[in-house]
Amino acid sequence: MCNQYALRPSRDEVAAHFRVKSFGASNAPQEIYPGYPGMVVHEVDGERVMQSMTWGFPLRLKGMKPESKPKPVNNIADLRKPMWIGLARKPQWRCLIPLSHFAEAEGPKGAKTKTWFSVTDQPVAAWAGLWRVSDEWGPVYSGVMTDCNEAIRPVHDRMPVLLMPEDYDRWLGGSFEDALAFQERCFPDDLIVMERTNEPWNKAGKLVGEQLMLQ
Fold this sequence. Notes:
The chain contains five helices and 16 strands. It has helices spanning 11-17, 82-88, 168-173, 176-184, 201-214; strands at 5-6, 22-23, 31-32, 37-44, 47-55, 57-59, 71-73, 75-76, 94-99, 101-106, 113-119, 125-134, 138-147, 158-160, 162-163, 192-200.
């Protein structure tokens, strides 16, 4: 499961990487958490656009009070599941999630630290995703997950479906079978860079959440 990722290059650099023709204002921070804004690239009338959306599809659980905030479903385990297949079959609901790094927790319970992963020689990379317009939060997105490769296995058994630049058009415009093929493939071990840190896992998330709530 991926519950944090980062996008450290500037918005202009990201737009240039994805050949985006237009993009609007964004309140997305450099480090992104479920339920908060992130940048998303998708196509409109054959042109790539980039916009800010909320990370996570809103899900209202049974027994929740009407005034309770929905839970953000930020990861997609299987594109064939009923919650996702209708969107996944339609290319207009597929998107690219720009990122430079994604994080996983590592270590004993209560003392977990943050380990970052990135793609070799890719200052900007893409995570395969789906998006839609929700009643609760407006445009929202979620990222597709797959089994980890051997480079990530020491830390976690799952990883985002990462796309190389030559994959972008096929993910955005290909068939449903193409989309499934990306989720089922194993991303090359030698394209992953791991950076272990001493930063407590929960510290940054709490700080960002407090900052966003104060805006």
